Amino acid sequence: MKKFCVVLSLLLALTFCLAAVPAAEAKARSSRNAAFGRNFYRNLSKRLSRNRNDYPLLTDEEFANFRAVTTTGIGRGKLYRSSSPVNPWGHRNLIADAAARTAGIKTFVNLADTEKKLRGYKGFRNSYYSTQNIIRLNLNWKYQSDVFQAELAKGLCLMAYSQPPFLIHCDQGKDRAGFVCAVLEALMGASAVEIIADYLASFYNYFGIRPHTREYDFVAHNEILPSLAVAFGVRDISKVNLAAAAEKYLLRIGVPARDIEALRQKLGTTPSP
Q1: 0.90 exceeded by the pTM?
Q2: The pLDDT of residue 40 is above 90
């Protein structure tokens, strides 16, 4: 009996040690990831430049973070995104405005500015932008706040009855524009992989972050994936019907079903009525 107790004690101790090793490894990994995140965000702004010559590998449109949204379900030439075509801070506005003219943008969805601020930008009156329909929302950065959601719902309702092609932008066309485009992409049937790729294209254009790198995965798992998961009320967006989840989210924030259907018609692959 005594020998049995000794053996049992040894087995319990071994089990405890084996269980402690993964826990210790997980804690160390978490600590390393936290340190990586702090350093990543601390250094990110240092990689952002307003000088076109600092981005020799980019096209002009990539430098302005201008591109068509081409994920599943969205019709060709229906939806675009970019940095601000009128805010001169990043020295990208003239390129974005010219690209918008070439694309024939009819409705600009401005997520960043009030009317007063918009009209105060130097060159606004002479821009192509100023001649088209502008939906001004002045969204904050808190995606889950009541104010953000109410203003987003208002903007999407206006968008549902405006003329495409649409261009969605904030200042850099990266964060707020990235979230709103991700919601619309999900609504139209895009996969999580497509949404991540489109969102992270902005981080390549501004910071040179390439796919299949630790930085790329870090941004995906710390920005767009958790933002959508919280908005949609799910744990993992790759394991749900994203179109249904996006529709449920839009209904919850105040976009009527008829306007959601109108949005689908405007953004879809069939001609808009």
Answers
A1: no
A2: no
